[in-house]
Amino acid sequence: MKEQIREQILYKRAKQDPTEKKPKDEQIISFIESLPEFEKAENILIYISIHGEVDLEELFNKHKEDKNFIVPRISRSDNSLDLYKITSMEDLVKGTFDVPEPKEDLEQVNPKDIGMVIVPGVAFAKNGHRVGYGGGFYDRLLKKTTCPKIGVAYEFQIVENIDGEDHDEMVDYLITEKEITHITTP
């Protein structure tokens, strides 16, 4: 089921009109900025947008003077995500899977020092489960954090239900261009 969802949503995301995508990105960023968790967080883990994901570069540019932005890099030794502080988009190089990632000579950050994680995903359900690209990188990383986890997506990426597995990590908030949903777990 996850593979079918992944295929359908990635197709829709790739077909987005850039002129319609930009205002959606701006609204999602505005919602992120409105969260008390964003205000409190000193170290914020973001991702660098690929394949039509919500673009967070404007969030970085607006707040790089008052927040520390952390970006993941795939560790070739154990397929985990190492975290690095960036101060400029010039701190990025093309990495594994052609994903822009931080240069290795930057300051490394412990996952426990993160105050908020902005989580990418291919699809999300209102119960907080997500479908990623299938590598499990974020699930393994999120297990090491104790901070709020904010899933960001476009409204068309929200599906009715995603069956979670034991290793799946859920998000605490889900933000689309239309709303902020606080996930309450039973």
What would you say the CATH architecture is?
3-Layer(aba) Sandwich
From the spread of the alpha carbons, the general shape counts as globular
What characterizes the major β-sheet? Answer: 8 strands, mixed
Q: Report the span from N to C terminus.
A: 24 Å
Order of helices and strands: HHHEHEEEEEEEEHEEEE
Give the helix proportion (percent range).
Answer: 25-40%
**Helical stretch count?**
5
| Widest sheet, order of strands | 6-3-2-1-7-10-12-13
Give the CATH H-level superfamily. Answer: NagB/RpiA/CoA transferase-like
Total E-strand runs? 13
Percent of residues in beta strands? 15-25%
* Number of spatially distinct domains: 1
Arithmetic mean pLDDT: 93
Calculate Rg over CA atoms.
Answer: 15 Å
Structure explained in plain terms:
With 186 residues, the protein is α/β, with parallel strands linked by helices. It has one domain (2-182): NagB/RpiA/CoA transferase-like (Rossmann fold, 3-Layer(aba) Sandwich). Helices cover 26% and strands 24% of the residues. It has 5 helices and 13 strands. It has helices at 2-14, 18-34, 36-40, 57-63, 137-142; strands at 43-45, 68-74, 81-86, 92-94, 100-102, 108-109, 116-119, 123-125, 130-131, 149-152, 158-159, 173-175, 180-182. The chain has an 8-stranded mixed β-sheet with strand order 6-3-2-1-7-10-12-13. A 3-stranded mixed β-sheet has the order 9-8-11, with helices on one face. The longest helix has 17 residues, at 18-34. The mean pLDDT is 93.
